[in-house]
Amino acid sequence: MKNNTHDKKRRALLKGLASIPVLTLTGYQPLAQAAMLSVDDPTAKALGYTEKSTTAGQTCANCNLYQGGDKAAGACPIFPGKDVAAAGWCKSWVAKA
Ligand code: SF4
Questions:
Q1: Atom of ligand 1 nearest to the CA of 47
Q2: Rounded to whole angstroms, how far apart are CA atoms 45 and 55?
Q3: CA 64 – ligand 1 centroid, Å
Q4: Nearest-CA residue for atom 4 of ligand 1
Q5: pTM to 2 decimals?
Q6: CA of 59 to the centre of ligand 1 (A)
Q7: Which residue ranges make up each domain of the chain?
């Protein structure tokens, strides 16, 4: 004999799970490019961000925090929601591990 209370709880749980978007569960992020970080952004200014590095041997492209791979621009966790230039630089530069 089945336990109806147990079945109802299980159905309610499954309904709840079904309402969570699959994209949320998979951590999917769209490939759309974010807006470029402006050098006038207050945090960018505070960290001396520039779109073209003048520090020898240091650019966003070879910073451990750069998430753009070999693209000309990409994400950086220091500036959430914005892309930084691969040729750029800021005071938070960290050598790739
Ligand atoms: S921390 Fe600075 S240097 Fe490194 S990727 Fe981000 S903006 Fe570029």
A1: 2
A2: 16
A3: 8
A4: 93
A5: 0.70
A6: 7
A7: 4-85
Element (H, E) at 36: strand 35-36
Report the DSSP beta bridge partners of residue 36.
Answer: 83
% of the chain at pLDDT higher than 90: 65
pLDDT tens, position by position, 35-46: 999 999 999 999
| pLDDT given at position 97 | 86
Domain 4-85: which topology?
High-Potential Iron-Sulfur Protein; Chain A (4.10.490)
Strand-strand pairing, 35-36 and 82-85: parallel
Distance between CA atoms of residues 90 and 42, nearest Å: 13
Report the separation in Å between the CA atom of 52 and the middle of ligand 1, taken as the mean of its atom positions: 12
